Amino acid sequence: MDAGTWYKSLPRFTRYWLTATVGLSLLCRFGLLPMEYTYLSRELVLTRLQLWRCITSLFVFPLSGATGFHFLINCYFITQYSARLEKDQYARSPSDYMYLLIITAVLANLGGMLFNVYFLMDMLVVAITYIWCQLNKEVIVSFWFGSRFKAMYLPWVLAGIELVFHGSLASLVGIFNGHVYYFLKFQYPQELGGNAFLETPEFLKRFAPGVSGGISGFGVPPESRAPPPRQSANSAWGRGMALGRN
């Protein structure tokens, strides 16, 4: 498969994310876009209202000879785990995946301001990877030097490597952000029987309408463990049958 065919095969929002990240990072690397206008700063955002930094810090990565390999690894994770998540779990509801990216981006900005993280690529990549891994806990993934382990451990391995070699908490914050989304989207409503707080807004559904039909399920949300609602013995409707049960 040539590069053009591979690029076009990426799901829509993963392709947009990768393009923006590579494009803006290269513009900064070659001095066409001043780096000082792109990083996240709590003071500049909150006191001088330089709100564009909340966007540029998501996509710009400070490329240099020392960080180039790290950048490529992040791009690889985007093309692997964001693409899989969008293509398999959200194939019929692209607006839901767009909403996922928006929520994790907002959480990344909050985490970046709290912990003084200037560029948010690591945080966002790990959050998306964490969500995919939670939906595919038992899948065996390959890592460096031929190591293989269950997907549920991958985000923690990434966070540990970044903490040891770079002294950064960004990946740990990314795990927290990913878990916030996973808990509110899947665990709380489906396992605990709580309200669905992360319903996608209608304007996003109109912007990226869903696709009818097809099969989705590479990552399967956890089966609900919430107790069924009790019915009165005098109910005129009878017991009925739960959908999807034999």
From TrEMBL:
Its main location: endoplasmic reticulum. Keywords: Endoplasmic reticulum, Membrane, Transmembrane, Transmembrane helix. May be involved in the degradation of misfolded endoplasmic reticulum (ER) luminal proteins. One of its GO terms (biological process) is response to stress. The gene is Dvir\GJ22875. Residues 219-246 are annotated as: Disordered. InterPro entries: DER1, Rhomboid-like_sf. Belongs to the derlin family. It comes from the Eukaryota. The lineage of its organism: Eukaryota, Metazoa, Ecdysozoa, Arthropoda, Hexapoda. The chain crosses the membrane at residues 16-35, 55-78, 99-132, 152-176. Coiled coil: none annotated. Pfam families: DER1 (PF04511). It is a multi-pass membrane protein. This is Derlin. It is found in: Endoplasmic reticulum membrane. It comes from Drosophila virilis (Fruit fly). One of its GO terms (cellular component) is endoplasmic reticulum membrane.
